Amino acid sequence: MSGFPSFDYRDGELYGESVQLSHIAQEFGTPCYVYSRAALVAAYKKFDAAFAGRDHLVCYAVKANSNLAILNLFARLGSGFDIVSGGELQRVLKAGGDPQKVVFSGVGKQPDEMRAALTAGILCFNVESEAELTVLNQVAGTLNKTAPVSLRVNPDVDARTHPYISTGLKENKFGVPFDEAEKLYASARKFAHLRISGLDCHIGSQLTELDPFVEACGKILDLLTRLETQGLTIDHLDLGGGLGIRYSGENPPAAQDYITALCSAIGRRSQRILIEPGRALVGNAGVLLTRVEYLKHTPHRDFAIVDAAMNDLMRPALYDAYHEILPVIANGGGDKIYQVVGPVCETGDFLGHDRKLALTQGDLLAIMSAGAYGMSMSSNYNTRPRAAEVMVDGGRIHLIRQRESLEQLIAGEKILP
Ligand code: LLP
């Protein structure tokens, strides 16, 4: 048992649904991201069903994995989308997403991105500062449109996650300070080209406890009461994303328990509820397939040098994140402790430290839980073309992104005349 439902062993071989991962490596090469359609659909449905009839919209956070096939799959299920750039908007539209189910988050929206979103007719702008309100009002005015807005409020709640992905503390750059929110809503009301639509917060990512969500939710509801007392109408509450997944030992709440906790905190209020999950929808629906290039034994350490690197999966290097690493052909476990590293010229280029494995040159490994913030954070560092992406669906295999070629990688560059 791998512990990852859609990627499990059969007769000693790791499969993605009904497809041998070794077969994918043979056909498409490595490094290669492999996603499971069934896992994506199941994760979405868990969230959607958990609302049990209550008016809601699941807005998938595109940044977690923005491949068009994945966006299209969620769009077909009726998903909305949380975007943070004009580029993500284009992807959503191209993938068949409904613009009226799109919320636009982010601290640094540019006027041309606002223009594109207004023209597409998105559901809401999650505005993060007073200055942004002013610019959005101007841009909407020039288009003769009214921009629907929420203020993203920073509730000053400790999400108890990695500091780089904690966003709801008062010292973070995100949202408007909780104590200034009422004043800002009052000034937002005065802008001719803005219409107040919602109230938004997002406190961080990879949260493994319910308490911080419930605490933030409580604060947001207090604020909602005060805003309503002042005569404001708030159509929806956007409670952000952030639900964690199991990478190894974590035990995050189930989607159902998380949504039930939010809904019961909200009680009988009539507002539509939006959430913006990213990782919880895609994280455990993907693996990164890689091949052992060399084994290198030094007096101090045993290294497995694989063909995936920090440019393909940045999370270990950036956050010291842990991803399970499994052999594609089970071999009974090993007795050697390996440092699983990539070919990039940095000591920080590792995929896993101190992993007990039995390895030979040429073996295939699966880096687990790589569906979220894997490909979407990849780069071309060391002039490494980006990996291929494949989706399995039962016994079928779909190439959803070709491996990048070196020609594509340098296509935009020019030498001096
Ligand atoms: N909404 C907003 C406004 C966000 O900033 C984020 C993530 C989400 C929703 C989705 O959060 P999720 O459900 O995926 O936790 N690169 C990091 C994660 C960065 C998260 C940034 N914001 C990682 O690899 O762990």
Question: What does the model show?
Answer:
The chain is α/β, with parallel strands linked by helices and 417 residues long. It folds into 2 domains: 7-36 and 283-410, Beta Barrel (Lyase, Ornithine Decarboxylase, Chain A, domain 1); 105-277, TIM Barrel, CATH 3.20.20.10. The protein is built from 12 helices and 21 strands. Strands 4, 14, 15, 16, 17, 18, 19, 20 and 21 form a 9-stranded mixed sheet that branches. α2 runs parallel beside α9 (255-266), α5 packs across α6 and α8 (211-229) packs parallel to α9. The radius of gyration is 23 Å and the shape is globular. The N and C termini lie far apart (59 Å). The mean pLDDT is 96. The structure holds ligand LLP. Residues 61, 64, 82, 105, 165, 202, 205-206, 240-243, 276-280, 315, 319, 373, 377 line the site of ligand LLP.
Structure summary:
This protein is of the alpha/beta class.
Record the SSE blueprint:
Elements: E1 7-10, E2 13-16, E3 19-20, H1 21-28, E4 32-36, H2 37-50, E5 56-61, H3 68-76, E6 80-83, H4 86-94, E7 102-104, H5 111-120, E8 124-127, H6 130-142, E9 147-154, E10 176-177, H7 181-190, E11 194-200, H8 211-229, E12 236-238, H9 255-266, E13 272-275, H10 279-282, E14 286-297, E15 302-306, H11 315-319, E16 325-327, E17 336-341, E18 350-357, E19 364-367, E20 388-393, E21 396-401, H12 406-410
Parallel strand pairs: 4-20, 5-6, 5-13, 6-7, 7-8, 8-9, 9-10, 9-11, 11-12, 12-13, 15-17
Antiparallel strand pairs: 1-2, 2-3, 4-14, 14-15, 14-19, 16-19, 17-18, 20-21
Helix pairs in contact: 2-9, 5-6, 8-9
